[in-house]
Amino acid sequence: MRTKTNNPKKYRYVYLGIPTAEYIEIENNYKKSTCRSLSEYIRNIIIHNPITIRYRDQSLEDLIEEIASLNDHMNQVRNTAFQILEKLTSQQQTSQFNPVLAGFETTIKHLDKTIQEIKIQIEKIVEKWSQS
User: Fold this and answer.
1) Distance between CA 14 and CA 12 in Å, rounded?
2) Which of 46, 61, 105, 121 has most Cβ atoms within 10 angstroms of its Cβ?
3) Chain center to CA of 106
């Protein structure tokens, strides 16, 4: 005859019905936590275990997005300048240089404007960080 043993690894499943709005709220909170799964997050809530929440600094997130945007813009300007430079070096006659030089001059002005925008953003960042 078999005897019943208490197996600590055995699970009991609990099914829970909640409204969609509450589920979305729970899921959003779970995504902010360090829990690896939604089940782990809900278990921690039920048995009152502490839950570690990730904190994101929104101003830092905005800064990262702005720097990435400026970096992409600088890469576009740089690529355009290289393309114009390639056209300049491939041209044989000086009369053909005038339209290309005008385009190059426009690109250089645009590059200068972009550099000024970067300087302004960096000044804002320094000012913001110095206040904190």
Assistant:
1) 7
2) 121
3) 31
